Each structure stands twice: as structure tokens, then as C-alpha cells.
Amino acid sequence: MNILIIKASAESDFKDYKKYMSSPPQGIFSLAAAMPNAHSFEIIDETNGDKLSKKQIEWAQLAILTASTPDITHAYQLAQKLKESSLMVVLSGLHVTFLPSEAAYYADSVIIGEAEPVWQTLLADADKGLLKPSYKSNEQVDMGNLNPWPNTADLKERYGTWGVLVGRGCKNSCSYCTVRPFFKREVFRPVSHVIDEIRASGKKYLELHADNLCSDPDYAFELFTELKKLKVQWVGEATLDFAENEALVEAAAQSGLTYLLVGLETCSHPALKMAGKGFIKPARAKELIRRLHDNDIVVDSCMLFGFDEHEKDIFDETIAFVDDVKLDVIHPNFITPFPGTKFYNQLLREERLLSNDWADYDCSHVVFQPKHMTPQELENGVIKVRDTLYSTGRRLKRFARVTSMQGLYVSSMTT
Ligand code: SF4
């Protein structure tokens, strides 16, 4: 069979931002890597600017599409178009896993959960024309056996920053996060596999992809020790509390960590506590960020607004907090109830969802009734935070700080 593997991405004001922020989508690449030799495939990553051509549609017999929630309506439209062209169509990914009945309307088959464990069975069924309406994986992928990249496709040159899969899942269970409901537990690849892959890639600037890279300090120490020998620079994602471990911060810096996404989310500890993220203590942020800065690590975080614990003064509090703790890169956004999360289920129960249009679920629209303010007040507050934190004076300050740590290239790309 000829197969199209598609990461769907809708046209939007944030298309360039998504392209800039996105790293190679390991989900679709590991599917391609698990493809039996009898099949041919093409990868279309719309996030990265790829366009599906008429020739590709005529060439293929089966298409599998994945998309995040704000892109899912576009994915459904694409799925319908492909079905009309007589392709077998499969939908997969987080949104599809959490709302399989909705997705099933647009596809011949849906995958619930991780796709790799059911992929070969699905392809064998499709080959015989016996595709089932759904496939569900009951076990998590064995990271020791996972091959994250297809050998046949020269993908590395298509992405600015090469991503290396380190782990999937998170041991925490924050109410607004889709990671835990999707990946039932946290698993990491063997360190030797990660190191071999980096060495083979020849890349010197990488994103190490794990939902919470430092949550197992023993694993993280082993990884950083081996990484140091490769003399690479890398960016990653870990909760800020990892910086309580001074030796681990130093090991991370020596292994090439230059830029860290920490997921502080809000300066309100009551809000973090209610969201199941009380282990992050805003009162410790200043000291921990200073420790990261002392090791020349640039610190990036979303600051989310609209938690039930947020009163109208949260906007001014956040501006003062960000200035005080010296965050380098800030993304002020609305907390968004993604399907599958406890937060979504709570708002659904309380009849507080305001939008049925998945395209609005992009963290830039208010899609639910906030508890202590109107949607308009929430929107105005976030605009005020953005305008204030991105004033010329504050940007220049952050620019100077990031330049002193990582040079002009990183500061011009980030601040
Ligand atoms: S710590 Fe981060 S990745 Fe883990 S559940 Fe919370 S928000 Fe999600």
C-alpha cells in the first residue's frame, strides 16, 4: 500500500508561530519507522509548511491524520476530502483518543491511545480491506524497542531544530494537562539509545523531548553525564522544582542545556494547588531561576490566566511577579480546557464552556466562563499583561540578560 502520514495544521494567525515553536513531530515519524517494508509512505507535516498535493492523493490508498485540538476541524475536513477520493482514512492523536465518537464520523477508523502498538495490525487489516472502526492499544509503548525515526526519509534538513525523543508521559496529573490522561505513565528511552541517535544525527543543537525531563533524577544524571561527552547544546522541558537539586542543574548546564521551558503557569499557589501542581511554589521561583541563570540557562514559561482561584488583581500580580523572578521568555495565555482533562470535564459539568468551535481552543481565546470575572475582563487582562511585559523597556532588559547568558542569536530569537 501507499500511505500518507499527515500532521494536519489549520491556517491561522498563529501559523508562523506554530511553525517556529514546533519541533519534528515524533508521533508521526515513529509510525513511519514502524512501517513494514511492503508499504511505501510519504510524510506531510502541515505545521512545517508541507502541502498535500493532488499527485500524493492519487498515489495513496490509505491516509492517517493526526492533529491537536485547535487543528482538528481542519483535519476532519481533510479526512472527508480524502475519503471522497476513495482513500481509507484513519484518525489518531490526543483529541481523537479523548473524543473517538466525534472523530469516527470523519474516518474509516480511529486509533485510541498510542498508535505504534496497533499500527501493524491496522495495516494488515487495511491490506485485506477489513479495517475495523477503532483500534485501541492497551499497553504503553516499550521505549527500549521504539524506533523514533524512519531510516528511509531524509527529514533532518526540513527542521531548524532537530528533536530527539527522550521520554513520554509524566508522573504528575495536573488538571488542565492532556499528558497523563493520554500516556498512563512516565517512561524514558534507554540513555544509550538517545546518545546513539544524537551521535548518528550529527546535529549540535537539539531539542530533547520529554514531557518532564528531570522527574527521575537518576535517569537525568546518567543522561547528562553521557551528553556532556558529545559537546552539544540542547533545549528541553522540566518542572521548575528540578532546580532545587543544585548538582542536577550544574550537570544539565555542563551537558549543554541552554534553554529550559519550566511550566510555572501562574504566580498563584492556591491555583497551582487546586490544579494538582502544588509542588511548584511561586515563592521559590526567584531563587531557582537565579540558580538556572547562574548556569547560563535561559528560562521560558507560559503564564496562564482564568484559573478559578484568579481574582481581578491577578494581572497586576503576575506582571510584578515576572519582573521580580526574572523570567526571560513569557507566554501570557488563557488556561484552556482541552478534551480529556479534568478541567474540561469540570467545566462541562458546570455548563461553563462558551465555545463549541475547536479552533478557539488555541490558548488565545476565552472559551469558558471564568469564576471571578467576565470573559471580556479576562481577555482585557491578558492583553494588558502582554502589552506590559512586551513593552520596549522590559524587552530590552530581557534581551540584555539573555544575550549575556547565551549570546545574540538566542536573545534575538526568543525575547
Ligand atoms: S507537570 Fe507538566 S507535563 Fe506533567 S502533568 Fe503537569 S503540566 Fe502536564
Automatic annotation (TrEMBL):
It comes from the Bacteria. GO terms for molecular function: 4 iron, 4 sulfur cluster binding; catalytic activity; metal ion binding. GO terms for cellular component: cytosol. Its cofactor is [4Fe-4S] cluster. Keywords: Iron, Iron-sulfur, Metal-binding, Methyltransferase, S-adenosyl-L-methionine, Transferase. It holds the Pfam family Radical_SAM. InterPro entries: BchE-like, Elp3/MiaA/NifB-like_rSAM, Methyltransferase_Class_B, rSAM, rSAM_horseshoe, rSAM_sf. Residues 156-371 form the Radical SAM core domain. Signal peptide: none annotated. PANTHER family: ANAEROBIC MAGNESIUM-PROTOPORPHYRIN IX MONOMETHYL ESTER CYCLASE-RELATED (PTHR43409), BLL1977 PROTEIN (PTHR43409:SF7). This is Radical SAM protein. It comes from Parashewanella curva.
